[in-house]
Amino acid sequence: MSGMTVAVPDAPEFSQPLPVEANEAVLAFMARRRSASALTLRAPGPTEDELQTLLRLAVRVPDHGKLSPWRFIVIEGEAKARIGAQLTDLAQARPDATKALAALGKYNAPPLAVCVVSHVKPGDIPEWEQLMSAGAVCASLLNAAAALGYGANWITDWYAFDDLALAAIGVGPDERVAGFLYIGTAAEAPLERVRPDVNALVTRP
């Protein structure tokens, strides 16, 4: 079910003090956050107001130089169906057609797809930092959707790297897809998966 009863604070005013303080609710959410399988996502998706809230929350990420080196392509309704048909035609022409067509199941099932597009801007900020900022937008959008009560999944697949597919979606030749965020109502609760042993990943100089 959606989180339409969840109250989301308005955006703070510019230069408003934002105290750093503990938030047990956020920690509890992060401790149990889990992506939902895109294949299980059904209508209803977020309302237009909810989507605007999700996008507003998604851009509150580290962005060195304040470049906003990313943008969103919202894919839903008739446009989603039209692009899906184009992707199907492209998949059928690929050498790995069976696999490519199967991958489109994750595109077709959810009612909403948000393509997060990375657009590196010239200047002093390294390309790598701008790309990581786009990844942070994906993660924030994923978490915001889950916090609002929707199932969500962050995916890239062949159509994130195929020039003809990118043109059909509206991604420019000087842009890259950081991820497709699929959002909808989860038809089933996702199961916890194996998590890495954090201690095995930590070193100290």
Task: Explain what this protein looks like in three dimensions.
With 205 residues, the protein is of the alpha+beta class. The chain has a domain at 69-187: 3-Layer(aba) Sandwich (NADH Oxidase), CATH 3.40.109. It is 37% helix and 16% strand. The protein has seven helices and five strands. It has helices at residues 24-32, 48-58, 77-92, 97-103, 105-108, 127-147, 163-169, and strands at residues 41-42, 70-76, 112-118, 151-155, 176-186. Strands 1, 2, 3, 4 and 5 form a five-stranded antiparallel sheet that branches. Helix 2 (48-58) packs across helix 6. The protein is globular and about 55 Å long. The mean pLDDT is 95.
Note the run of SSEs as H and E. HEHEHHHEHEHE
Q: How can the largest sheet be summarized?
A: 5 strands, antiparallel
Q: Percent of residues in helical segments?
A: 25-40%
- Using DSSP, what is the number of strands? 5
Shape: globular
Briefly note the CATH topology name of one domain.
Answer: NADH Oxidase
Number of helices: 7
Structural class by helix and strand composition: alpha+beta
What does the radius of gyration come to?
18 Å
The CATH C-level name of one domain is Alpha Beta
CATH-defined superfamily of one domain = NADH Oxidase
Q: What fraction of residues sit in β-strands?
A: 15-25%
Q: State the end-to-end distance.
A: 47 Å
Mean pLDDT level: 95
